[in-house]
Design goal:
92 residues, mainly alpha, 6 helices
Length: 92
Amino acid sequence: MMTVFSNFFRRLFHKSSPVEWVSLAELSFLADVSDAILTCDQVFELIDQYAERAARGEDVAHLMPLVAAHLDMCPDCREHYEALERVLESQA
């Protein structure tokens, strides 16, 4: 997160740097995501979609960051997700 802020301030003060710059909209999005937390019930509603996208090789951590964050923290939801992964792998 510190890199995001340092990149933003370099751009703000017009200091050249080889790093990528972030827009204010992107910075705002990052702040919003860090404050948001999904409940197990909310993740349960989205986990099928998350698992199917992951099975297709999509970057689900980027596409559904709140679900990914919840799965990293919740062993019960992670176990359910891993069971879905196994089912989808067996169907492939």
